[in-house]
Give the backbone structure.
Amino acid sequence: MAYFPSKKTTRKKRQKKQSGRLFGIFSLILLVSATLTAGFYIIFLGTAQNPAPPLPLLNNSAKKAPGAAKTAKPTPQLPPHTPTAKPAPTPAPAITRPRRPKVAIIIDDMGYKEKGGEELMQLNLPLSFAFLPFAPFTRPLVEQAYQKKRTILLHLPLEATDQKWDPGPGVLKTSMDAHAIKTQLRRDLDAVPHASGINNHMGSYFTANPLAMKRLLVAIRDLDVFFLDSVTSAQSTGYQLAVEMGVKTGRRNIFLDNEQTPEKVIEQLQALVKLAKKEGEAVGIGHPYPATITALKQYKDRLVAQVEVVGINQLVR
């Protein structure tokens, strides 16, 4: 006979089954809660009880952390902060002014005309003066020129091509040997105190003779003075030989008063200025003639407005 459980028995089994299921869910919740609580304790409370050691100070005097090895090196110092320097201001570009042309004017044959020489020295111009040795007024005029700080030259008499022209006392000739040339040159220089240079008086024959000029230039070099070639001859070898021999030198560009009228001299002064503007410098030679003195007085202001007048010592090289 088959057994069929009663409704009451079935209900009890169902309730018992539901109770077991609830107990399992409750147990699972308790397990999850316990796990979360343990994790919270480990993460937060454990960190609080064992805080991380402080960062070491950035200097050599920092104390070692407890338990640190004795061989541990101190933390190196950082270099001190250096503020970035501001760049220096760029200087303004220098103003380049054009170089003024330079002109040197030499007055030859000084020493014979006292009044004319004095008038030229009274001009407010840095003229250069070439004195003949043994002329009657050479000594007193040299002293005046020296006091005015003018450039002084020995106007050295040299042998001319045409024998009718007498260069005067103290002349040097091509027939003289080296010793005779040097001896006479010393005497001539002694007659013109304060001379820093030499230019030739006449000398068309002497300057065209290379051997004679070499002898003279050796003596000039030994006496430590400069040589200005007056270029009294187109065949003169003086300037070129002086360059080759290392003697400080220069040469004349324009004669100012071959024609002795103020108008002609002024024309030559204008030509001198034009040449200086073209070449940067120019050298003119004049004489203590009345026409030359008048022309210089009349043209002086226009001259200095256009060029810088300098002593010939500034243009020899």
